[in-house]
Design goal:
5 helices; Arc Repressor Mutant, subunit A; 123 residues; 2 domains; single chain; mainly alpha; elongated
Length: 123
Amino acid sequence: MYKNDKIIRRYSEPFKLKILDELTTGKHTKSELCKLYSIAPTTVNEWIKKYNRKDLMNTRVKVETKDEISRIKALQKEIEQLKKLLLKKDLDALVLDSYLEVAAEDLGYKSVDELKKKLSIKP
């Protein structure tokens, strides 16, 4: 046997279904089945995808305390308030620029910048 020779394993359909059935019943975990039958976890994941058994894929469960949940809600509320303030600030700046344009035109200035200099308004 050569160094680069690999053992290629082929699994029958009934064997694959048996593994998925054992996973479904909860008899063994995925890692236990992989050790028991010497199967790579990625192989089992491929079978799960092949047979459209997404219910057997690992799922993440996020566990939070009430304090964490309330803190997250408070932060989300603060973010919304900050977004509103930022929007208001942008609108105020837009309105100010519009007023300055009209004022510069009415007062006979060549540009808004000239009026801002006269009034000592920073750009």
